[in-house]
């Protein structure tokens, strides 16, 4: 009995460790819907790049610098190098990013019925109480509304000499937080995953989240 219990305990510990590692791996992975457009010239090497700031982006240097830091890794991974002299760069890179907050209600969920109490009729709690549905009563917004954030990045690569647009990349995902530099870095990396090929149709890309420095 002791041997059997010990074996079961060891198996349980092993399973828990495996689940923990799988959970850590999933937490370090970012999935996004990516799109890419343009026509990168056949045989052209990535070359050197510099970032371009629009007049509106120049008003907030801190935020723009953070965005450039997030995109830099994706460009380097794609084979580009940052030019020591911006005037001698082969490629000019324009960046954009946005985060939109929205709130979802329970009726947005396709699975209305919950095992821990239904969205319909009554809800379990400290005391039995009517649970206001979409119809009839005023719905208690704050406790049950879930805030979500839609995050999107965009990158445009132009030839410095001719200003011709050569490659456009986009990626987006959503989640419960606004995200940060590491998350936006992963989104930029996802957007450039197909470079130098293009895939205009939205497709899922998963990348590893870089650790914070």
Task: Summarize the biggest pleated sheet.
Answer: 7 strands, mixed
| N→C terminal distance | 50 Å
Q: What order do the strands of the largest sheet run in, or round the barrel if closed?
A: 3-2-4-7-8-1-9
Question: Mind telling me which CATH architecture of the largest domain this is?
Answer: 2-Layer Sandwich
Oligomer: single chain
Q: Output the CATH topology of the largest domain.
A: Double Stranded RNA Binding Domain
Query: What is the H/E order?
Result: HEEHEEEEHEEHE
What global shape is seen?
globular
Instruction: Give me the Rg, rounded.
Output: 24 Å
Residue stretches low in confidence (pLDDT < 50, at least 5 long) are: 6-25, 111-144
* Beta-strand fraction estimate: 25-35%
Count of domains = 2
**Helical percentage:** 25-40%
- E-strand count: 9
Number of discrete helical segments: 4
Task: Explain what you see.
The protein is α+β, with helices and mostly antiparallel strands and about 210 residues long. The protein has 2 domains: about 140 residues, Double Stranded RNA Binding Domain (2-Layer Sandwich), CATH 3.30.160; about 40 residues, no CATH class. It has 4 helices and 9 strands, in the order H-E-E-H-E-E-E-E-H-E-E-H-E. Strand 5 and strand 6 form a beta hairpin. Helix 2 crosses helix 4. The longest helix has 26 residues.
Question: In a few lines, what is going on in this structure?
Answer:
By secondary structure, the protein is α+β, with helices and mostly antiparallel strands. Helices cover 27% and strands 31% of the residues.
What attributes characterize this protein structure?
7-stranded mixed beta sheet; alpha+beta; two-stranded antiparallel sheet; 213 residues; Double Stranded RNA Binding Domain; globular; 2 domains
